[in-house]
Amino acid sequence: MASETTKAAIVTGGTKGIGKGIARGFSQAGYRVLVVSRNAAEADAVAAEIGQEASGFAADVSDEASMEAMAAAALERFGAIDALCANAGIFPAAKLSEMTVADFDQVMSVNLKGTFLSVKAVLPAMKAAGRGRIVLTSSITGPITGYPGWSHYGASKAGQLGFMRTAAIELAPFGITVNSVLPGNIMTEGLDGLGQDYLDKMAASIPMKRLGSVDDIAAAALFFASDAAGYVTGQTIVVDGGQVLPESLGALEAMEG
After folding, report:
1. Would you list the domain boundaries of the chain?
2. Residue 1: its pLDDT value, please?
3. Tens digit of pLDDT for each residue in 186-196?
4. In what order do the strands lie in the sheet with 8-12?
């Protein structure tokens, strides 16, 4: 594999929110990053912004040929694929009574099938190198919590963890680890239009009384990708400021006592 200061990482969904934060964090840590998005111009713009030999690439995580092309581009440009951050995901809201089969299939195709296809695409390079780090971006929604309108999203995110555990077993003999970060409420540009009252209510449900930052998620992903986590596989880190801990609103109120 590449040296410690010239490792290469692929970040899918890397042009906005958590994905952009992960891409920036890996770049700052010395990785050459392939920023992947369905929009080539956005991918190139983020790559130019984060620098450090970052490169943009347009690909659809739900398409197998597109993922194979992504892996080939990373190898051509960087000579290695040390880490894959499978971050691409969508979260359109739809209550069950209104959700269509197309709605459900779209979320599963991007969030869950996209995880499978992106991981599968990088395996030849990682197996040949005898080492690799795969980091999935899941969520507290689905694996731990629920939220009205996100049953399909929650199912896809819980599904990622089921995929992770078996993938971790299968890939361990090749020196490849597979782990997952579960973000809670993270402040991204997607929340800008929701208003301060909404953001305050979100923060009030978190023991640390603030939303997380994309840097918080990048730090967890970087740990999983590091040599320090070489003996860690099939595991999750919840990064949510303690949001899932209170058993009731009373527990939050008791903090003030």
Report:
1. 8-192+213-245
2. 39
3. 988 877 767 88
4. 55-58, 32-37, 8-12, 83-86, 132-137, 176-183, 236-239
| Topology of the domain comprising 8-192+213-245 | Rossmann fold (3.40.50)
Give me the phi and psi of 184, to 5 degrees please.
Answer: -95, -135
C-beta of residue 36 within 8 angstroms of C-beta of residue 79 = no
* pLDDT recorded at residue 257: 57
Q: What is the pLDDT of residue 188?
A: 86
CA distance 180 to 221: 8
The two tokens of residue 197 are: 């009252």
How confident is the model over 130-159, as pLDDT tens digits? 999 999 999 999 999 999 999 999 999 999
Catalytic residue selected from 31, 153, 198, 231: 153
Phi, psi values for residue 51, rounded to 5°: 65, -145
Q: Is 153 annotated as catalytic?
A: yes
